[in-house]
Amino acid sequence: MRGTPPDNLASLYASYYFYGVLQVMPRRITVIAMAAALVVAAAALLIGRWLRAPEIGTVTGAVLTKDPDPHKQRPIQHALVVASSGGRNAKATSDGTGFFRLRLEPPVPAGDQISLRVEHPGYYPFTAGAPAGDEIQLLRLTPKAPASGPLPAHKQVSLANIRVRYATKATNTVNVGSVVRTFDILNRGNVPCDGRPPCSPDGKWKAMLGSLSMNTGEDNKYFRNARVSCIAGPCPFTSIESDGFSRGGRAISVIVRN
Fold first, then answer.
1. Could you tell me what percent of the chain has a pLDDT over 90?
2. Mean of pLDDT values over 58-77
3. Average pLDDT score over the chain
4. Considering the domain boundaries, does residue 71 fall inside one?
5. Domain termination site, one of 111, 126, 141
6. Neighbouring residues of 249: CB distance < 8 A, sequence distance ≥ 6
7. For residues 75 and 61, is the Cβ–Cβ distance under 8 A?
8. CATH number at residue 103
């Protein structure tokens, strides 16, 4: 039957339409709210992990002799290094170059305070605090002065008319000369490299290069058995970059990274 629907049917349609909206909208809002809550929770978890401080599992450094002259800051072997943090201790012994590496078990958050204590029979104990990080720790010990007591009392005896007899044996020898040169490579430790060479081998810290060359100046003279050694400073963190000396020759050279 065609025509205009009665008023009660129009009212029924209107009631049905609004009824359906009122039933569906809360469910949709609930689903959207739950999804938004999950997104917020996931974002909070990611931000928490991103903001969490990295953990440090090793402490690396060298033990040196304390002296105002850098040339006398010799490496100290067999020094006991103890790191303490949060009631936990880690121990290591320095090697012939003064190098040591401590392993922290379990690792500690970066920035946490660590106490470092160094002991050696010939030096006074040394304690220092440092934040946990990947910086190189240079620990310098003050040597103990040798015990000096009063000289024993002895009666002085005068000697006179001393004669010394000696004999010499003539031999034919070949004159052999030796040359020793020292050079310094000055660098400030724990400065980030930021991609500006020269850098440390791992690319993390700023490094410096130093070089030295020698020439005999004569055709019939040559260098043999040339050696290069680090004698003072943080030797474990230096390396030979260019070997122009081990084969010998009239001219030899070396480049060292510090």
1. 22
2. 91
3. 76
4. yes
5. 141
6. 222, 223
7. no
8. 2.60.40.1120
3-state secondary structure of 58: strand
61 — pLDDT class (breaks 50, 70, 90): very high
* Residues with Cβ within 8 Å of residue 241, at least 6 apart in sequence: 209, 255, 256, 257
Burial 90-101 (b: 16+ CB within 10 A, else e): bebebbebbbbe
113-120 and 80-85: which strand pairing? antiparallel
Gap between the Cα atoms of 202 and 178, Å rounded: 37
User: What 3-state class would DSSP assign to 77?
Assistant: coil
Q: Which domain holds residue 60?
A: 55-141
pLDDT band at 19 (very low <50, low <70, confident <90, very high): very low
Query: Alpha-carbon torsion 186, 189, 194, 198, what sign?
Result: positive
SS (H, E, C) 158-180: CCCCCCCCCCCCCCCCCCCCCCC
Instruction: Give the total number of structural domains in the chain.
Output: 2
* Weakest-pLDDT range from 4-18, 20-34, 52-66, 199-213: 4-18
Side-chain-side CA neighbours of residue 255 (13 Å)? 6
pTM confidence score: 0.62
The owner of tokens 């001393």 is 162
Q: If you average pLDDT over residues 170-185, what whole number do you get?
A: 68
Does residue 67 lie in a domain region? yes
How many Å apart are CA 185 and CA 29, to the nearest integer? 69
Contact status, residue 120 vs residue 100, Cβ threshold 8 Å: no
Task: State mean pLDDT over 235-243.
Answer: 86
The secondary structure of residue 142, as a DSSP letter, is P
